[in-house]
Amino acid sequence: MAATALKPLIAVCQLTSTPDKEQNFTSCSRLVREAAQRGACVVFLPEAFDFIGSSKQETLSLAESLEGDLIMRYAGLARECGVWLSLGGFHERGEDWASTQRVYNCHLLLDATGHVVATYRKIHLCDVELQGRVSMKESNFTNPGPEIVPPVSTPAGKVGLAICYDLRFPEISLALTQKGAEILTYPSAFTVTTGSAHWEVLLRARAIETQCYVVAAAQTGKNHERRTSYGHAMVVDPWGSVIAQCQEGPGLCYAEIDLAYLHCIRQEMPVCTHRRTDLYGRVTVLREPPLP
């Protein structure tokens, strides 16, 4: 499958990140180079592509700033391969690191020259306690992001950035669509418990209600002794059909983005014009990043 002028090709990665940052970079680099050779114009990596720590202390010690070595290496990889990179969940030591000792869960979008064109910091933190099954409190070591980032024009279309647990909140997908998104991306690290029950259902729901392509890179397999991820990275089209999905284990899946098809669906079923905002209001973006 190769990209065409009307149907650009994207690649979606499935990884098993560990606390070993160097090993993770090697794995990601191999997938990005493979995707570039296949003709992908945008490559999507999952949440925690940099690492998954086995404890709060390890996570904080391994985190870096956006100016650190790791992001510089990914910028070089984007330049080398001539592709855009969606780096979907970087443990960022922000400007407030010294005072808070907490990170941001940061989704970066790099263009084919390695330039950072957008940064979105996860606004919904995953604090979940499913008795005997899942215990997670992201807010113990993560600051929530302050804003929704407007969609970014890429070679594949206008991409709206989100991360993992954001998938459970349709408001962000509706807000991004209202701002012009054609592709919504949810790089994730779902657990097996939540993923087997909700992953595909939520992704297809977000695609159907927004009439967008939904791209979901994913963590898979055993990340460390206490963590196993669900996998099933996939792409859903604006009709809600799963058009690409990774098999078990690390790897790639590919999909063509057909914006003519997207606009046809929106024209034939114009749900955005049927909303009764006079009765239940309109989802709007109240805070956006300042203009550069």
Automatic annotation (TrEMBL):
Record-stated family: Belongs to the carbon-nitrogen hydrolase superfamily. NIT1/NIT2 family.
Segments crossing the lipid bilayer: none
InterPro entries linked to this entry: C-N_Hydrolase, C-N_Hydrolase_sf, Nit1/2_C-N_Hydrolase, UPF0012_CS
A biological process from GO: amide catabolic process
EC number: 3.5.1.128
Keyword terms: Hydrolase
Domain CN hydrolase: 8-259
Domain of life of the organism encoding this protein: Eukaryota
Protein name stated in the entry: Deaminated glutathione amidase
PANTHER family linked: DEAMINATED GLUTATHIONE AMIDASE, NITRILASE-RELATED
